């Protein structure tokens, strides 16, 4: 009898372990490791998993994923590559209400191209391989499209002139438009979110039909936020057609702004509520002050005088005339801080990247870089 006690003990213990293992849900083990999108597509078994991938768009149907003009914040598509275009290699992810304000693509278009992890249930969504009822989203805090942190990899860890030089190199990789092509581009970049037939005018804030572009009174035309006479670059392909600083504006208001520098103060501008002007400066309405600042600072980084165009730089004065300078820097920095990038500006940056110029405004993606370059 004594010789059989040890084997019987181990046999009983093995049975107990088997029972415990059987009672542990498969989903509990699944959350201990991060899997790829490809693995998640193959494992549509109702288990809970943490999936890592790049945000490549928003699914709107079984075989349709959009990369701009996002209709909402309820879903996103993940892939193992930021450049993936085949929906068969994508995982459709449901976005619960609690995560929509930070991971929904309509509100956060700069998430496109970022790498994130999501924990949820591996099950079909939009009748497609999916991840539903997520309980956690992480990552994707870098900039935007083109791989976000991958796009800005050359700027990592830099400040001051080194950061400015690195960003110049990154954003100078750009598809250039003709001045005629700018018309249609602005109809897409500045589309009214509430009315797709209209554009929003920059200083006026007015929603106006896309078809009313031209040169007559009450038409809208192409406003150069960095006045084209400041450096005398005109409308030739280059800074004169860079849609990161070209915006729709009422013809009359555009004329009132003219080539004035930016500063606070003045009298109210007719047809542009909230905007003010005096003899040598222009102050836009509060809702776009930060937008204006970031457009000016983009131009200062993009055009450094090494590609046949003037070296554009901000300074802290008004009345710059034809010099390749724009002021006032101190005011622009205050506007940038007081009016951070909103959904409209982020979407605009993404549309320019996806559809037109293939480059980005880094100060929309990384607002903190303004003071890193201009302390």
Automatic annotation (TrEMBL):
InterPro entries: Endonuclease-I, His-Me_finger_sf, YhcR_N. Residues 1-26 form the signal peptide. It comes from Kribbella deserti. It comes from the Bacteria. GO terms for molecular function: endonuclease activity. Keywords: Endonuclease, Hydrolase, Nuclease, Signal. Pfam families: DUF6359 (PF19886), Endonuclease_1 (PF04231). Residues 35-137 form the Endonuclease YhcR N-terminal domain. This is Endonuclease. Residues 255-281 are annotated as: Disordered.
